[in-house]
Amino acid sequence: MLNILVLNGPNLNMLGKREPKIYGSQTLEDINSELAQVAEILGVALVFFQSNHEGALVDAVQAALNVQQGILINPGAYTHTSVAIRDAIAAVALPTVEVHLSNIHQREGFRHRSYIAPVAIGQISGFGSDSYRLGLEGLVKYLQKMKPDKRS
Ligand code: CA2
Prior knowledge:
Helix 4 links the parallel strand 3 and strand 4. The two termini are 12 Å apart. A five-stranded parallel beta sheet has the order 2-1-3-4-5, with helices on both faces. Helix content is 36%, strand content 17%. It is α/β, with parallel strands linked by helices and 152 residues long. It has a single domain, classed as Dehydroquinase, class II (Rossmann fold). Ligand CA2 binds next to loops.
């Protein structure tokens, strides 16, 4: 069975508790349990991890090698700053989909650049919590099309 790492970066543990106008009223737990339901329908296993620390996210990406076959990530603010997370994703070479609740291209200029997008297979941004579901569906389809011997 395909196994996918679902990573969330800084402050996403605050979802549903602050700024509902930008990020919606669902908590991260709500989003993760919705994703778990989608995963069951798709027949894939998910592992969830959230951290406010860049190094912990790098460690989680590295630990996915030979364990998970793909990564779904909302890197939060590290999207716009982290060469380290980008390098980790490039190093493990696991198919990765970047997701955002808000449309980062509609917001402040500093959010328009993603260090992660060039090493991701794609980016989904602006659909609220549906971004995660859409990202998971895209990632699973991509992995299912890959020849099993090419998956890690
Ligand atoms: O839209 C997204 O998903 C973001 O990744 C969210 C990040 C932001 O820095 C990115 O530019 C876009 C921020 C997550 C902060 O989440 C909060 C949730 C509730 C209250 C405060 C912050």
